[in-house]
Amino acid sequence: MGSLFRSEEVCLAQLFLQSASAYSCISELGERGLLEFRDLNPKVSPFQRRFVGEVRRCEEMEKTFTFLQQELRAAGRLPAPCPESPRAPAAREALRVQEQSEQLAQELREVSRSRSSLRDRLRDLRQHLHAPLGSPPRPRALSEREPILDPSLHHHLDRKINFVAGVIHPWRVTAFERLLWRACRGYLVASFVEMPEPMEDPATGESITWVIFLISYWGEQIGQKIRKISNCFHCQVYGYPESEASRTEAITRLHGQIQELSVTLEETEKYLAEVLDKVAQVLPTWRVQVQKMKAIYLVLNQCSFDVTKKCLIAEVWCPVRDLTQVQDALRQGSVSGSCFVQRVPTTESPPTLIRTNKFTAGFQSIVDAYGVASYQEVNPAPYAIITFPFIFAIMFGDVGHGLLMFLFALWMVLYEDSPRLRQGTNEIWLTFFEGRYLILLMGAFSIYTGFIYNECFSKATAIFPSAWSVATMANHSSWSSAYLATHPSLTLDPNVTGVFQGPYPFGIDPIWSLATNHLNFLNSFKMKMSVVLGIVHMGFGVMLGVFNHVHFQQRHRLVLEFLPEMIFLLALFGYLVFLIFYKWIKFSAADSRVAPSILIHFIDMFLFTSNAENLPLYPGQVPVQMVLVVLALASVPVLLLGTPLYQWCRQRAPRTVRPRPLAAGEQEPLLEGQEAGNSVNATTEDVESGGHSPDHDFAEIFMHQAIHTIEYCLGCVSNTASYLRLWALSLAHAQLSEVLWSMVMRNGFVGLSYVGGVVLVPVFAAFAVLTVAILLVMEGLSAFLHALRLHWVEFQNKFYVGAGYKLCPFAFAPDTWE
């Protein structure tokens, strides 16, 4: 079988790598992604392995790359993804990458430090320039005639007045002024003016409008208090020249310094931009190369040296069909071509490998969510491609709703290569996008079942003419006007010639949507349909177990398990399906009133009795039913005791093993420190006898088989009832759709005037939103979960174990580097 129907054959192999070529060989294997490496040093600490120094060097380079990336982001630049996947660097190239990256990081640190100091100095000079270096501003008095100073202080005017100028944050001005007044009351005059242009705050990086202050005071002690308070409020205090000539000279000097610093800062910014351009150009490639190099050394740490210390030996799980590619990769990676691969016998269960594509990946993920397939057992995914959308559509059958779902999935399929759709950050959206082909088939099958149910947004469509003739019934019954006035509901009798002209060509006749008993009719139809499809689905699952029994050479299970299971299922529930179809075929509209009840017949079948009021469907029905029940009951002990007794007899039988002379040194360990019993030292006899081959406990086998028998027999009953959810969910979906139409959309057709047309717009908008939110999203999710349960519990447990583990090959995946 192909890989999709059954997992590929995987073998355990050994790679013999020369020490000089091991790095290049692992790099070539990583590019191809063929092998899963096993750790041959599980008891060795990661810090004591051979290549721990190389791994640390890669981690140091990653730290340097992280610093470079942070500098790029701080400058508002995002490194572009690597356009192509470069190969892992050689040892000399790795040293060059390490030197260049450290050199770029050092240059960035120095240039960033210089730019930061230049900016701080330039900001201080500009603040100093805006400080009041001219004549001290006269504080505004309370009135034009009121003096600034108190008249009692006029005798102190002969003292020398000193000045303190500076810049303060606008948020601290009020507290600063209040504290100055309380500490130096009557001995200072303060003036506050906003700076003409905003400047950057070094603490937060925000642009704010600083406040300039000028304080005049008397006395040295007052000056010391003012300076201490200014330092507490983190004010930038500048010197205030006393003479006008000194102030003019200071302004000229500041202008010159600002101009020189501006030119220097501009050149520094240009050089920094050049360094960042170089980093942005080489950083994506370096990151991919170093991550690949680190991954290679981590794999080499899982290998072990042989006794001569000249060869590295690795154990890998490898698909058998890829052994030639592995040998080709080793040939390309090795210098002298002396590296090779060799299969190793083992008793361990290999990992599961099922190759998928973008279409089958969604269905395979549904199966893997239940459990990864055991090695080479039947894979349910290819059958779920058809059965899962179909079972979903049975519960979601509506042409309109299915068409909306189909168009949404078709849009995702047509634009699946768009980076905007693939690189979304919303987890829910990514889930929908990964299952776009599943949603596409669910929508298509829902359209199909919608045509069968003849429902489009809960309304029937007359694609073909109805098979029921109202005119014929009216002519035959001679309905008068008085009769029609007193009877709002009229009955169509199919026994009248010409009233019923045969079955509808496809699906359900649209006249049933107008009937008052259409719900009873649909209930009967959908309930029987659910039972029939459920039993067929379970029977198909039991039949798939045949492929497992044949593949694993367990042919005794065909007689001791498969045959009793099929007899039990078909003798009871297969017979129920037969009764349903037989009643549909035998009884017509003419004799439908005397048709017996299948449910009563099925109950009487288990009671070994008959009901005189319930006529038999065919002659000899009671003996046939008794035989079927006896067969079903007789199959239970065969299912319960067959396999344990067979295993017990095989264990009791004497074994004959041919002695084989062992070659000299055959049991000598190849790996240093190799323990006995590992797959490397396994001999042919060990593999043929199953390793240590302990005797199976009969009680354990019997308990396992008893649990399986009870689960299967009771499951046939409960699982058949579980498939009735198809009927319940389908009915619920149809009723919700009908309620939404009658309570929302019908209100938009109340008027045929222009006003009615205007009202129809918001009504239709509300109908569309509720349809998408309730019927498509909520009902669709409900039907999806129920279909998932029917596949996991009712279908897969008939043949699927799901106790395996995936093959995780060592590969350089492009997504991890981005």
How would you describe this structure to a colleague?
The structure is a single chain. The protein is of the alpha+beta class and 818 residues long. Among the domains are: 49-126 and 246-301, subunit c (vma5p) of the yeast v-atpase, domain 2, CATH 1.20.1460; 160-240, 2-Layer Sandwich (Alpha-Beta Plaits), CATH 3.30.70; 378-467 and 502-652 and 701-798, no CATH class. Helix content is 55%, strand content 7%. The chain has helices spanning 22-32, 52-74, 91-130, 173-183, 220-232, 244-300, 323-333, 361-370, 381-395, 399-414, 419-422, 427-434, 436-453, 470-477, 481-486, 518-551, 556-586, 598-607, 621-652, 684-688, 698-722, 725-743, 754-795, 814-817; strands at residues 10-18, 36-38, 161-168, 188-194, 199-200, 207-208, 211-218, 236-238, 304-305, 311-319, 340-344. The strands form three sheets. Strands 1, 2, 9, 10 and 11 form a five-stranded antiparallel sheet that branches. Strand 5 (199-200) and strand 6 form a beta hairpin. Helix 16 runs antiparallel to helix 22 and helix 19 (621-652) packs antiparallel against helix 21 (698-722). The chain is flat and about 130 Å long.
